[in-house]
Amino acid sequence: MKVSDLDFQFPEELIATSPQRPSRVMWVDGNGTPSEITLKELMNRIPKGDVLVVNNTQVLKRRVFAGDVEILFLKQVNATDWEVLFPSKKYKIGDSLPLPLGLSMTLVQKGRPQLVRLSDEVHEDYFQKVAELPLPPYIQKARNARHTVEADESWYQTAWAKNPGSFAAPTASLHFSHADMQELRAKGVRICEVTLHVGLGTFLPITADDLNDHDMHEEYVDISAETWAHIQAARAEGANVWSLGTTSTRSLESAANGLLAGSPSEGFRGFTKLLIQPGYEFKIVDRLLTNFHQPQSTLLALVAAFSSLETVKACYSWAIERKFRLFSYGDLTCWTAGAGSATTSADV
User: What's residue 340's pLDDT?
Assistant: First the structure.
């Protein structure tokens, strides 16, 4: 698939800079026809016996400012060496930058990511004191503000975030609360958790012209034996598996494709580089709940694989015309596996 096939136009003012509760929901039926429903109506459409899979990753505070320079701390290599992302073009190997609380950072190796050496070892408490959540750059741009606001601390974490390790929130989950999950459980919906820590790939654009040439960065996945058993039981009963977000979807499909270590009896874990694009055959997920995604992104390619590129583009046009709010803090969409390859609505 050509990356340019994933392009679409949208007004900048539709980029959401804060959540809206309850969010609007675009429902796409099996024919590929979009309609707007409420979040409550969506919950009513998830029947007893179905499974809803959520991602319980927790977003790390790893965005540190060295004056005007923004540094994303990705991975600790040893006591003082870190892999980071920052605008290093004007810096040479050996150049140092001052960090908060009297530390400094020396550039050791360029690339993506870069390797740097700190003047002293840092631990989680350092980042809790000086770092910010790595909010998507397009939100900063839309706000015309580089720093997060205090409310982002709760806005950009899911209600069930508990396993630290992610560099972006699984944003489809931001639409739901603990009370929503309890309501679904009370009527017999099986709520299951997986962990996928969103990694470096979220921050880097696709540089290849063809998705087949794009190198996905690996992301850690953990699926318990209990979660897998619920999913397999639902499928045996003819019930549907609803995936809350593209991260949950990639987790489940990675296990189904044998890309993770483990077994049904002990669960699955490991690193995945699974790239889902049109032509992929889904093995687990029947319904996909996800936000609107940016043009020319692997996330949009996944949605196009789940439905069809023609349907996704038509539905996005429909939503943009009706001023749905876009991207991480924006509105929710719901897709049926294999929804029609064309949308017949006269409104599109």
Answer: 62
What totals of helices (H) and strands (E) does the chain contain, helices first? Answer: 9, 18
Give me the sign of the Cα torsion angle 289, 295, 299, 304: positive
| Helix, coil or strand: residue 289 | strand
How many whole angstroms separate alpha carbon 290 and alpha carbon 276?
Answer: 15
Q: Which residues fall within 8 angstroms of residue 20, CB to CB, at 6 or more apart?
A: 325, 329, 331
71, 86 contact by CB (below 8 A): yes
Residue 271, both tokens: 């690193």
Backbone angles phi, psi at 141, to 5 degrees: -65, -45
Contact (Cβ atoms closer than 8 angstroms) between residue 74 and residue 113 = yes
How does pLDDT run across 185-216, given as a tens digit for each residue?
999 999 999 999 998 776 677 889 999 999 88
pLDDT digits (tens, 9 = 90+) for 131-176: 999 999 999 999 999 999 999 999 999 999 999 999 999 999 999 9
Instruction: Please compute, for residue 140, the number of CA atoms within 13 A of its CA located in the half-sphere on the CB side.
Output: 12
Q: Could you tell me if 340 and 42 are in contact, meaning their C-beta atoms sit under 8 angstroms apart?
A: no
Concatenating the DSSP letter of every residue in 32-54 gives: S-EEEE-HHHHHHTS-TT-EEEE
Q: Which of 37, 35, 30, 31 is nearest to 344 (CA)?
A: 31
Distance (Å, rounded) from C-alpha 54 to C-alpha 247?
9
